TrEMBL record, chains A, B, C, D:
This is Aromatic amino acid beta-eliminating lyase/threonine aldolase. It comes from the Bacteria. InterPro entries: ArAA_b-elim_lyase/Thr_aldolase, PyrdxlP-dep_Trfase, PyrdxlP-dep_Trfase_major, PyrdxlP-dep_Trfase_small. The keyword Lyase applies. Belongs to the threonine aldolase family. Keywords: Lyase, Pyridoxal phosphate. SUPFAM superfamilies: PLP-dependent transferases. One of its GO terms (biological process) is amino acid metabolic process. It holds the Pfam family Beta_elim_lyase. Its cofactor is pyridoxal 5'-phosphate. Residues 31-295 form the Aromatic amino acid beta-eliminating lyase/threonine aldolase domain. It comes from Megasphaera elsdenii DSM 20460.
C-alpha cells in the first residue's frame, strides 16, 4: 500500500538524520538555550525580515496553537476563525479548555474574509452588552487552509488591517506553511507573514522534520512570560536543541522550500489526472491536499493499492476523499497513482 | 567543559539513531496507532506484569504529569506530594493551571511517608467542612526523587495501602525510573510499580531517548477518554511511532536498564571520591544525582573544567551543587572528575 | 416611564419581604444547612415528584448554569444547545471558561429538536476521530426559550429519549420556569421535568424573588461533590436560608405559579393589541416576552412613555423590540400600554 | 441556644429591611447600573479617599476573592498569602481552579510580614529558573485575619512598599473590615487601604448586610474588562441595586462602623471574662473573634447553652474553640455568656 493519506506518515528528511548523527556525541544546554536554537531563530527572523521578533520551538501544532493563543489572550477574549478551522474541529476543544470561546464564521473554501471578521466585531460592539461579553481579540487563519487553499496577499492584507483597526491579534497557523509557499499561484512570502501577522508558525512535522513547529512572535513585547506559558503546558522540550537543529537544517539551504514545492507539483500531477477523468474536486486546491469526489467503485479500486483519507459520503453513490502528497512522496509513487487514476 | 549538570544534555543512545535510520523510508499510521507503539506497549506491560494495563507515550515529563493527573481527577480533587516534588517546584504550576490544589507535605530526603499522607487525609475528613473542600484524591511520588533518593518496597507498599484505603490514586513520576531501578540498594521492580501504583511512567528523555515518557495506567478502566485528554493538551504526537520505536529499542534487549545502572555506578565512584576528601553530601543518594557541599574555592576549581548545577548557598563560604551522571557519561569523564576531586 | 424592558426590574413579592421581616431576629446555621432550605427542598421535590432528587440553591442563573454543567462534565465533554441559547450568547463564555466546548445548533423559534441533536451526536461518532474529540455529553435547553417559546411535552420527551440513548445529560434552564408553566398552551409540569430531565431549575430572580435559582438534580448520585463545586465557584451563600426562605414562601401556597401566570395573561393582552394594529411578531410567543417589529416612528412614540428592549434593526425603517411583562406588572400598566398601542 | 458560632447567623440590620420595603415598588435598571450602586460607589470612594478608584459589588466573599484575583493575574502569576489565609484553607481551591498557584507562607498570629514576602520574591528571582516559573504577582492579606488579629499601619505600609518594589498587587480581603476598623487598638482607616492597597473590599455579609461585598479597585486602569470577568463567573447580580442599597444604607450614616465596633466591645467583655477565669487565648485578638482553650468539661458546660465553633483538640483534655460576636449580638446575650464563663 502506498500512503497518500496525510503528510506526516514518514520520518524526516535525510539531512536531519545526518545532523542528529553528527551531533549525537555533543553536549548541549537544556530547554532550548543552545546554539542550534539560536542559529535557527536568527535564520527564521531573517527569512521573515522580522529582526524585532522572537522564535519559540514547539513539539507539536496543537500545542503551538493553544499555548500561543492562551499566552496572548485573557479569559474574556474570544477567537475568530473559520468554522472549518483546525482549532475548531480537530484539536479536542483545546482552545475552550484554555478558557476561550471560539467564534466560528462560515468558511468559503476554508477561508474567511476581512468583511466577515469586521461584521462580527461590529456585532460585538453594537450588542449593547459588550461590557459583559468576551471580546473578539484574535483572528486565527491557516496557511494552507484545511482544504489546501491559500489566502492571497490582498486577502491577508485586508484581514491584517481589520485586526489592527480593532486591536486584535492576527495568528497564522502554518503547519503546512511550506506547501503554501511552494504553490505555483501563491503570492505570499515569509516576510509578508512577518509584516502582516502578529504571530505565525513554520510547520516542521508535516514539512520534513520528525516533529516541531517554529512559532514567530513578530512584535517585541508579545513574548513577555511566553516561555513560562510554554513550560506550564509542557511545551518546553528538555532537549530543545533537537528542534533548533531540525529547523536550521531544513531551512539554511532551502531544503524546506524545495521539498514542499515538489510535493505541490506532485499534487498538480494528480489533480490533472483526476481532471482528465472528469472527476470533480470539492474545492480547487493549488497545494498538496486534493479533495475529490469519487464514486464508491472508484474509491474501492484505488483503495486496493493506496491509503487515502475518507472525508464522508456525498450522496448514496459518491464519497469525498483526500489525496495528500508530502515532502517524502516519490515521483514513482505519483506516476503509479496517476496511471491508476487514468485507468479508472 | 565536561557536563555533569544534568542527564539530558546529550542526544540519544546509538541504537535509537540506528533504528530511526533503518525505518526512515517506512510509512506509518499517525497518532500512535502503529506497530512500534503496539510492540512497545506489550513489552512494557510484560515488564510491569500488568496485562490489564494501557500504555500512553508522551513527548515530555511535564505533560505526562499534568495531563495524567488532570485526566484522573475532577476539579474538586487535590494532589498530595512532597514539598520538593517536581510538580510543586519546577513545572510552572501546571497542576494548578489544570485546576488542582497541591497539598505539599514536608519531605524527608525528598520523600514522604504513608503516615504523613494518612494524617493529611484524616485532617481533611475531620475538618468539619470536607463537603466544601477539595478532597485529597491522588498521591504523587517520584522514583527517583528530586534528591536522587529511593522509596523502598516497604515504603511504597505502605503508601499504596493508604491510597487504596482512602480511594486515592497513586501516581509515580518515573522520569528517572532507570536510575532508580539500577541502584545497588534498590529493591523495587517494574512489576512492583505495576502492582502498587495506579499510574506510573518510564522515563525516556533522561534515560537514553531523544525524548518521551511512557505512562502506564495499571487499571483497565482508567484510560476512559484518556487519549482525548492527551489530544486536548497537545500531547498526542502526529508521528507517534517515533516514541514507540525509542522505547521498544531501549527496552527490548535491556539497554535501558544497563545504561542507567552504569550511570549509577559512575555516580558511586564520584561519591566515593567526595567522601575520601571529607566533602559532605546534602543527602545520601544511591543514584545518578549527587548533592554535595563544596567550599567556594572547591566549586570555583571544579567549575573551570566541569559544568554542574548550583543549588544555592549553604553559608557564606559554602554552596550546594549537584553532579549528575547520565546514560551518556563515559568512564574517562568520571575518571577525570574523580582525579580532580581527589586533587582538590 | 413604565418598565416593560425585562422581568427583573423590581424587588420581590411582598410575601418575601414579610417573611424576611418576621425572621430577622432568628439565628440560622450557615451555608444552606437550615430549616428553610430543608422545607423548600422537600416542597420542590414533591412538586417535581422526584423524591430521589436533591435541590441546590444558587444566587444567580449564570452560576446555576455553568457550575451545574461543569460539575456534571469532564474537560473532554461538550454541550449541545441552540445557537440562541443563553449560555452561548449572554454569559460571557462562562461554559468555555470552565473548559467546555459549546456545539451550537441552528434554532427554530429559539428551540432545537431531538433530530438535530441526534444528527450532531451521530456526526461525532462517525467522525473517525471520536477518540480524540470532545464528546457531546449534555443537552442544554431553556424553558421558556430566549424568544419566549415553549417546548411541548412531545418535544421534550423526544429530546430526553435521545439524551438517554446516547448517555447525555438533559439540563433545563428554568430561569423563566414560572412563565412557561403559566402559559395557556403549555402542557408540561414540574413533574415532567423531574421525569425527563437530569437537571433543571426553578427560577427565582425573574419570578418574584429578590434573587436565587433552585437547581434540582433528579438522579440520586449526580450530586456527588456538587456542593464542593458550588463552593469552588463561590455559589454557596453564607446566609443560605435567605434562598430557601424565598422559594418556600413563593411556592408553598402557589404564589409563584399565580404571579407568573398573570404576567403571561398580561402579555397576551399586549400581543392582542399589537395584532389588532397589524404589528408583526418576530416569533409567536405564548409567554411573558413579546418580540414585535415596530416602525422607527412607532418605537419612538412608545419610547416616550415605556422602557422596552431594543433587539436591533430589521430594515432601514423597522426595529425589533421586546416587551416583557413580569410578576410585578400591574393591570393598569398593561391597560395604558394597550391603549397607547391601539392609538399608534 | 444562643449562637456565638459566627458573624453570619442573622439576617440584616433593620435599616436594610426598611430600605428594601420602601423601594419595593420602584423599578430599576439591571446589573448594577442604577442609582443605589452609583451612590454607594461614590460614598465608598469618598470614605476611602480614592476618587480615581472603582467599586464593584459582589454577592459573596469567595467570588470577590477569586474573581478579583483572576481578573488581575495571568495564568503564570502566583499569589502569596499566609498559610492560614481564607483562600488557602476555606474556599475549595477556587484560586487554583482559576489557574493560580498559592504560595503559602507560615503565619504569625494569622499574619505575614513584609520581610517574609520579600524573601519569597527574591527566592523566585534567584531561582535560576524564574523565566520558567509562575511569578509572585499578588499578595493577599486579610483584615481582620482568620485569628481576628490586625495588621498595623506600619506593617501594612511595609507590605505595600514591597509589593510596589516588585510590581505585585496588594489585595486586602475585608470580609470583616468593620470589625477591624472598630477595634480599640486599630490604627488603619479606609483611606489607608485606598492608599496602600491596589484592591480591597468592605465586607457586607458579616457586617450587617443580608449579603454582599464591595470591592474597591484603587487604580484607574485596573478595572479593564473587570465586569466581563465578574459576568463570566456569574458574579453580576441581575438586581444589582439590592447590593448598592445595602452598602449605602449601612455606610451613609455610620451604622456600619457603629455596629461592628459594638461587636468588638462585646468580644472584649467576653475576653475579659475568660481572662478572669485564667482561660488561655490561642492568640490575642482585639476583634470580634476570640479563640480560647477550654477543658473538655468547660466546653461541654458552655455547649449546653451556646453554639460556638470547635477548632480541634489541643491535647487529650483541651479543645480550642471560637466565640464570635456579631453586629447582631445583643448586650444581654453577652451578659449571660460572661456570667456563665465566670461560673465555670
Amino acid at each position: 500500500m502506498i500512503r497518500f493519506n496525510n503528510d506526516y506518515n514518514h520520518g524526516a528528511h535525510a539531512s536531519i538524520l545526518q545532523a542528529l548523527a553528527q551531533t549525537n556525541d555533543t553536549q548541549y544546554g537544556g530547554y532550548g538555550v543552545d546554539d542550534w536554537c539560536d542559529k535557527a531563530e536568527k535564520l527564521i527572523l531573517e527569512l521573515s525580515r522580522c529582526p524585532q521578533g522572537k522564535v519559540y520551538f514547539f513539539p507539536g501544532a496543537t500545542q503551538a496553537n493553544f499555548v500561543t493563543i492562551s499566552a496572548l489572550l485573557g479569559s474574556c477574549d474570544s477567537v475568530i476563525c473559520a468554522d472549518t478551522g483546525h482549532i475548531n474541529c480537530h484539536e479536542c476543544a483545546s482552545i475552550e479548555n484554555a478558557g476561550h470561546k471560539i467564534v466560528a464564521l462560515p468558511h468559503h473554501d476554508g477561508k474567511i474574509t476581512a468583511e466577515q471578521i469586521e461584521g462580527e466585531v461590529q456585532a460585538y460592539y453594537n450588542s449593547g452588552e459588550a461590557e459583559y461579553l468576551t471580546r473578539p481579540s484574535l483572528v486565527y487563519v491557516s496557511f494552507t487552509t484545511e482544504y489546501g487553499t491559500l489566502y492571497t496577499k490582498a486577502e491577508l492584507t485586508a484581514i491584517s488591517a481589520v485586526c489592527r483597526k480593532y486591536h486584535m491579534y492576527l495568528f497564522v497557523d502554518g503547519a503546512r506553511m511550506g506547501y503554501g509557499l511552494g504553490a505555483a499561484e501563491n503570492d505570499l512570502t515569509l516576510a509578508d507573514f512577518g509584516r502582516l501577522a502578529d504571530a505565525f508558525y513554520i510547520g516542521g512535522t508535516k514539512c520534513g522534520a520528525f516533529f516541531g513547529e517554529a512559532v514567530v512572535l513578530t512584535q517585541p513585547d508579545m513574548g513577555r512570560r511566553f516561555k513560562a506559558h510554554m513550560k506550564q503546558f509542557g511545551a518546553v522540550l528538555a532537549k530543545g536543541w533537537i528542534l533548533g537543529l531540525q529547523f536550521y537544517t531544513l531551512l539554511h539551504d532551502g531544503t524546506y522550500f524545495a521539498i514542499t514545492k515538489r510535493a505541490d507539483e506532485y499534487a498538480m500531477q494528480i489533480r490533472d489526472a483526476f481532471r482528465q477523468k472528469g472527476i470533480e474536486e470539492l474545492v480547487v486546491s493549488p497545494t498538496n491536499q486534493q479533495f475529490v469526489i469519487l464514486s464508491q467503485e472508484q474509491a474501492r479500486k484505488l483503495g486496493q493499492k493506496y491509503v487515502f483519507e475518507a472525508e464522508g459520503p456525498v450522496d448514496d453513490d459518491h464519497v469525498c476523499v483526500r489525496f495528500c502528497t508530502s515532502w517524502s512522496t516519490k515521483q514513482e509513487e505519483v506516476d503509479q497513482l496517476v496511471a491508476d487514476i487514468l485507468n479508472l
